[in-house]
Automatic annotation (TrEMBL), chain A:
<dbReference type="InterPro" id="IPR001392">
    <property type="entry name" value="Clathrin_mu"/>
</dbReference>
<dbReference type="InterPro" id="IPR011012">
    <property type="entry name" value="Longin-like_dom_sf"/>
</dbReference>
<dbReference type="InterPro" id="IPR050431">
    <property type="entry name" value="Adaptor_comp_med_subunit"/>
</dbReference>
<dbReference type="Pfam" id="PF00928">
    <property type="entry name" value="Adap_comp_sub"/>
</dbReference>
<keyword id="KW-0813">Transport</keyword>
<keyword id="KW-0653">Protein transport</keyword>
<protein>
    <submittedName>
        <fullName>23603_t:CDS:1</fullName>
    </submittedName>
</protein>
<dbReference type="InterPro" id="IPR028565">
    <property type="entry name" value="MHD"/>
</dbReference>
<dbReference type="GO" id="GO:0006886">
    <property type="term" value="P:intracellular protein transport"/>
</dbReference>
From TrEMBL, chain B:
<protein>
    <submittedName>
        <fullName>6844_t:CDS:1</fullName>
    </submittedName>
</protein>
Amino acid sequence: MIDSLFVLNATGKIIIEKHWRGLINRQLVEYFNDQFSKQSSPEDLLPIIPTPKYQLVHVYRSGLTFLSPVSNEVDALLVLEFLHRIVDILAEYFGELAELSIRDNFDIVYQLLEEMMDYGYPLTTEPNALKEMIVPPNIINKVISQVAGVTSVVQHVPNGSTISSFPWRKAGVKYTNNEIYFDVVEEIDAIVDSNGAIVSSEIHGLIQANCRLSGMPDLTLNFVNPRVLDDYSFHPCVRYNKFENERVLSFVPPDGHFKLMSYRVNLPHHQSLPLYVKPQIHIGNGGGKFDISISIRNTDGKPVENVLLVFPLAKSVSNVNATCNLGSYIFDPVTKSIRWNLGKIELKDRTPMLSGNFSSTEQTPESGHTITIDFLINMHAISGLKVDSLKIYNEAYKPYKGVRSMTKAGKFQIRT
Amino acid sequence: MTDFRISRPNFFSTPKKGENYELRADLNSEYRDRRKDAIKKVIANMTVGKDVSGLFPDVLKNMQTDDLEQKKLVYLYLMNYAKTQPELVILAVNTFVKDTDDSNPLIRALAIRTMGCIRVEKIIDYLCEPLRKCLRDENPYVRKTAAICVAKLYDLSPSLAIDNGFVSVLQDMVSDANPMVVANAVTALAEINESSSTKDIFIINTPTLTKLLVALNECTEWGRIAILAALAEYKPADSKEAEHIVERVVPQFQHVNGSVVLSAIKVVMIYMRTIKNDEAIRQLVRKMAPPLVTLLASEPEVQYVALRNINIILQKRPEILANEMRVFFCKYNDPPYVKLEKLEIMIKLANEKNIDQLLSELKEYASEVDVDFVRKSVRAIGQCAIKISEASERCVNVLLDLINTKVNYVVQEAIVVIKDIFRKYPHKYEGIIQTLCQNLDALDEPEAKASLIWIIGEYAERIENANELIVTFLDTFRDENSQVQLQLVTATVKLFLKKPQPTQNIVQRTLQTATSECDNPDIRDRAYIYWRLLSTDPQAAKAVVLSDKPPISVQSNTISSSLLEELISNISTLASVYHKPPETFLGRGRFGADAVQRRAIEEQEEASRESPIQAQTKTNIENLLDLDFSDTTTAVTTTSSLPSSSMSFTPTANVDDLLDLFNGNSITPTQPSNNQNNGLSNDLLNLF
């Protein structure tokens, strides 16, 4: 179980401190800060650090450290998953994860921590259930409570969420317009070598739902081709056995936004990535030349949008001269990288190219940096996964249904 | 807060009175808002470490309210300062007890939860009655909160929890209709069982097993983890039962929470020990791969724990991820701790089929910026060469390519691993020695230097200018690291034995310097032994120094089989991350003396079991030295014709003891000396 939680700001100062099993001396945090400051980058610190009495499990997000010392043998992954959950919940409650929002709402933070964990064991972590017990802050709530002195806490029991056989759905939901939307979002993680050969590639998909349906609808969602999935995990509402046997998603949805399903697909070998980056780099005397071109391959006729390519150069590079035939580029002298912002690439466009040269204070600047690229393709799921139909049972109304797909770059890296 | 008080004793405290005075006035204000704001301010002060315990009675007055938020804040304050104000807490008891009768279940649960958290002796007696009520509450939210409260009470007073029948109520609650209550009852029971001396509080029998399996599919993610942990402790009666349980556990592989997934994998791995049906095992192994791969797409922290566990799982079931090498390829922006773990696993997965792919990947890593990662990648190439003999030539070629990059640390690391390759495949790659020697000037790290010197000594007869090369090192003998010095002494002697004529001077000079000018006893002793050997019986010296080395093989970071089984039982826990049994890193001194002793003995056994492997795998030069060293002593003990010298050490006994002190590994060859001696060395060993 988890003994305590410290939330530290960027300088290592404690901004939230919660003990579930008796006080832990703050000196422990000083020890942690020592370790922390030894790293060249905060993300580099080992997530679990042993000390004689406590094992320090921590997560670093948005400049904040969530540190949990544990004194007994625990499920390490449980602690990490719980910390991730705290991070998610705080971000959801305050709109962003930041020191200021946590400081401003410390009373809510403490109430949340109290509700999320008891005696070191996770208690309630479902966002919907928490929101029924502790109302998220918003301007209107604040105004009302200041003007009328009305408390911001919901005065009813969290009955729907704890007693019903569908703990994720509250009873008595009513909408005048019944509608449900699904977003199929796929991210491509890929490593491509300088010749354009795929070293590794994977697609991580997520089906995000926004459900605004009255009553207790029981839904069945069919895919055209569920076989493409290599691995999948579901929101607790999905009936697992039904999917195992019939490959359909059968569920009573939570109200509002939720992640219905996430999945992984290995890109088949014969299928190509949506775009290819071809870098040609020549290191010469005190500098070098480069030519980077991007070609569109497999986008089902859709344009590629929000394209941003980042090309890091050696630390010794002082100056860059280049031209591009699409978008614009800047050289960031701090990170020593070229950021080429292409915007939208239409299929009819000429092959986008960025070429130029750089000068370096070193005779032979180091090479071998990895290019990353960001992009987005609307109305296209690279895995080929398609929703076939959605049927609704247990309710008489006919809801409006919508499905949207999108493919994005995840960790898309090109070696040079 | 205690530490705050220590760092700033009361009598030195700056007059914070002003602020506290104002807060006190506000806490007693007739206006509700003002009181509530004051409470918030008090909590805010508490958070930044200011001592606001003096306001205890004033805060307490605000406990009785129908404003739930305010009540929660007061409770928060109470939990923090109850320890320092135990007499005053009694004043709160009445409100607590009243709240456990409230019509709102949220308030009932809150009251019982908070009461349990106030770890004050005096309040315990008042806790029992409300707890009894809450355990039987009609609302499951209250019941599940009360279940955890029993564990809190047990921690404070085990007898009270048992005598009041709370523990047996908890045991009944495992059969509760609500899965959430079941999960919390299991959590509480597991905790109580762990801290009980008898360990018989939570025993799973067939009816509870059924309940657990039903609850498993219905409760929250955290409840599932608790139930899976309980299942991991259960010993299935036979293969059939194990298969039946596993069938219910496997769907948990599809949970979004990585911790649920890994807990399920733990249960399956443990139950596979009992399952006799080969087909079932094959099915399970097949089903385990995708969720493990998916874990690698999570946040880096989760990846780290997953990778450490995959490392264990692979050693037990190497077939699981045999075709998944690619998913372990490193992204350039993976955190360093993830990259290093991935490397380990790639070496484990390397085989004839995927070696080309792996080598080109490792070569790619060797050009990255992170020096530590580059070194480990070069080392990995060497380990592949040793592991897969069919591919050794390709590995050596990649290493040569890397040496040609002339990047200093890459060259040095490559030379270190090539030395191991020479050990594994003697006389196979002599052709590359010339290339290695060309980089002599670039070497500045002791390990790389020592490795190259070892190679020169070992292949002295093939290297035309071996003596010149050695001489260049000898000039700076005194300034070298002891590792290099030891290797130089040995290499010089080897050189002399292979090419006596031109090197007589060199060996004389080296041994002279080593024996008379070195502070390090290891080096002096070794030089003396060589010297004596050479002067007494050159043939024996040849037999000793030029003897064949035992072969090496790579089982990179292999875990001994008993530890492996223990770690598999601990998948997903800290032990699985550290690859150590829990007792070795947890709460020092909290375990009984015999537990420590038992652990020490086991560890020693493990060490002696592991040592042959370590000696083989550790690319560390010191182990090579140790092997040379022990070879030497074998000969010393057998030839035993040493004249007693002016040095006057009684050779066998002393050398043995010294050896035992320095390395437990090498006792085997020295064993046949004599009984007394054995006893002595054993005693010495036991000390460590």
